[in-house]
Every structure is written in structure tokens, then in C-alpha cells.
Amino acid sequence: MSNQCPNGWNSTTLLDVSEKVKAGPFGSAITKSMYVADGFKVYGQEQVIAGDISIGSYFISEEKFEELSSFSVQEGDILMSCVGTFGKTLLVPEKHKQGIINPRLILVRLKDDFCPLFVQYLLSSSLVQDQLLSCLGGGTMGVINATMLKRLSLRTPPLPEQKKIAEILSGIDILVSAEQRKRLKISLMRSSTITKFTRYGLAKSLFRNTSIGKIPEDWRVCTLGEVFVRYSYGPRFSAKDYSSSGNVRTIRGTDVSASTGIRYSQVPLAKLDEKLVSSHSLSDGDVVMITTADCGLTSVFREQEIPFICSAYAVRFTPGKMINPDYFALFMQSELALRQVDSFTRKGTVANLPGSDVMKIKLPLPGIDEQNKIVQIIRSIDHQIKFIDNQIDSHKSLQKSLSTDLLSGRKRVSI
Predict the structure, then answer these.
(1) 99: domain CATH number?
(2) Most exposed of 77, 155, 262, 402 (fewest Cβ within 10 Å)?
(3) Quick count: other Cβ atoms within 10 Å of Cβ 128?
(4) Number of domains observed in the structure of the chain
């Protein structure tokens, strides 16, 4: 934060602008045994981190609420997470269920001459978040308390300017929310389209009953063992073999997304024996399936500049001529595939899907031309989602830039 305060602004602290900065009750004051089916809501980090005041299902009785009324929330309060994922904020809206905060939140109630939305943006900005990190010695996990918050240095403009800044930044939030709703709608359509087309095909009128249910008359039921030439697990190696100067990238479950594919740039490098790398290297069009934790998560590998291999918790499938690997990856997102994966998965501390069982999964298989058409239809939907993602990123980038300028006073607004 610059040492010079903008003209007309005040240098102050959160304590000075607040009526109340209060941490939630001690843990012993509110335990799970005190919860009831319905009543007065208990707000926690769940709502703050999600940015949604309406979620959550913990309630206390009226008697307990009266006992803890000093922790009750009201419209315009700012709730901040204070344990673990600390520093996240949520503004209590007009419409909310009466309730209290739990021990993992701090409540900030402002004086009348301060705009709650402006202060929420300020508390969420790097101008304040950097101060919180400094209080914790730069750590990203820890606990903040009300005393730390009260000491936070703030610079605040007159109330009309606060409201104008909040209006500008919230306008961008509204745009982002609209794009996110649009994205959700298209994503749901994508999921239903995949299930429909990989089960009933494109404009089919004749069907037949099979071991997996009704399918188009000109389709066949195959096991994965019939459509893939071979499968193999990735090699096991020591964690010490991971190296920034490695000769191969090793795909883990966290590197795969059903909707966006393999996140190549984040796949870690390892330094392994060249013969081992050569025998396990993925080829363009190979299918990668995660078999531990995120069982059945599937994507298609596309050739990269350096070798890639599966980790020991993923399986490499080499497709035969009768299957488009991209079609198969879509099928693995369908309800029929997910049900089969669940039936084969061995539930334990960590879920596991044996490769031998994977080869027993059955899929309704159309001809290669119809597979290709289905893939193209889903790709067109994916392009729409990608466009929306770019719009969201653009809005967020603009807001981040404006937030820094407006909340610091480097850029002034006209009132």
C-alpha cells in the first residue's frame, strides 16, 4: 500500500469503521449435539467459501439462538472465514435466514457512514489480503482472529465514492454470474446430449433389446476388451524420481478432466530409464483412464513434444479400428458407463478400479461414421463452453485490474 493517502480519503483501521468485529462463539458453546432439524441457521465457512448464503443445513433452537444472540447476523454484515481457508468474505443480503456465526467465522458490522459492499471488496483485495498473510508470516494455512482484523490498515473515500466503486465492481460480478449461469445450462445440456447420443444414436427409429437395454438396431454391444487392442498400467517409480529436468511427463488423476481433457502443462516431469519410458510412452490417440480415487475418469492423449506416460494409477488403452477414442471418452461420461464403473469399483479407503474389470465394461457401439458425427456435435458444444470461459476470464481480469486501481485510489471515479 502506498504511503500517500489519496486526496479526500481517510487512513483508518477496520476497528475505526466498524461497530463490531467479533469472532464466533467458542466451540463448546455450539456443538453438533445442539443442532435441530430446523430453526435458526448456523453460518460457517461453507457459505462463505461458496459465496452462497442459502446453502447449509445446520440449525439451532430459538432458546439457543437467544443465548448466542450476540453472534447473530443481519443484513449488511460481512462474514470472514478465519481458519484454514482464511480471508474469504461474504456479504449478508437482505433476504437471509436468521441465525448466528459458528467458531470458524468473524463477523464485521460497519458504522452507518460506510458502504458494506465497498468494504467487502476492500477486505477481499490484495491491499488487505497481503496484510493478513503478513500477520501469519506469509503462510497460506493458519488462523486469523478478530484482533488481527481490527488492526488492518484501510483507506476509505467519502461514502458517495465508496458506493460508486462498489457499483462498478458489482456490475462486473453481475456479468460474471450471468455467464456462469449460461455455462451451467450448456454444461447440463452437454451431459444429457452425451447420455442420449451414446445410448440411442442420431435420429434412430428402430431399436432392439440387449443385455444393456434398448439400443439402435444397427448398433452392437461390445466389451472394452473387444474394441481395444491392449491395455497396460503405467510403471511404478520413486517420488524421488520427479525432477524439473526429467525426460518424461507422468499423468496423474489430478491432470485429467472429463470436460477439458489432459492438462498437459501441469503434468509433472520425472527422470526415468529411457527403456522404461520407451516401453510405456503414449501414442497419439491412446486413451488414458484413471483407476484410483477418480475411477473411470477418461481422456484421449494427443502427441506432445516430449514423451508422456501414465502413472501407476492409470491405464493406457490402445484403440482398435472400430472405435473412435474421442467417442469412447464421451461414452465414459454417460450414465450407462458411470453405473458400470461404480459396479466394478472396489470401495475402500481409496477407491480402486481393476484394469481387468475395466475390460468387461459394455458399450453400445455405432458405426465409425456415426461415432465421428456424435464427437463433432459434442465438440461444437465444447466450443460454446470455451467461449463462455474466455468471457468469464476476461471479466475477472478486468475486475482484478479495476479493483487494484479503484480501491487504492490510483484511479478516481466521478460522482
Answers:
(1) 3.90.220.20
(2) 402
(3) 22
(4) 2
184: CB partners within 8 A, 6+ apart? none
Same domain? 235 vs 347: yes
DSSP helix/strand/coil, 42: strand
Q: Is residue 267 within 8 Å of residue 308, measured between CB atoms?
A: yes
The answer to whether residues 403 and 171 touch, using CB atoms and an 8 Å cutoff, is no
Q: Residue 282 is placed in which grid cell?
A: 503414449
**80: part of which helix (H) or strand (E)?**
strand 78-81
From 68, 86, 75, select the one nearest 53 (Cα to Cα). 75
Q: Which three cell numbers stand for residue 328?
A: 469412447
Among residues 185, 191, 136, 135, the alpha carbon closest in space to that of 388 is found at 185
Q: Does a structural domain hold residue 5? A: no
Residue 384: how many other CB atoms lie within 10 Å: 15
In terms of residue numbers, what domain contains 110? Answer: 10-155
Helix (H, G, I), strand (E, B) or coil at 315: strand
Torsion sign, CA atoms 3, 162, 151, 404: negative
Amino acid sitting at position 105? L
pTM, whole model, 2 decimals?
0.81
User: Which DSSP string do the residues of 225-265 spell out, in sequence order?
Assistant: HHHEEEEEEPPP--GGGB-TT-SEEEE-GGGEETTTEE-GG
Q: What angle do CA 32, 38, 41 make, to 5 degrees?
A: 70
> In which element (H, E) is residue 164 found?
helix 159-200
User: What is the Cα–Cα distance from 135 to 152, expressed in whole angstroms?
Assistant: 10
Dihedral sign of CA atoms 306, 310, 312, 313 in order: positive
Which tens digit of pLDDT belongs to each residue from 75-98?
999 999 999 888 999 999 999 999
What's the alpha-carbon Rg for the chain, to the nearest Å? 27
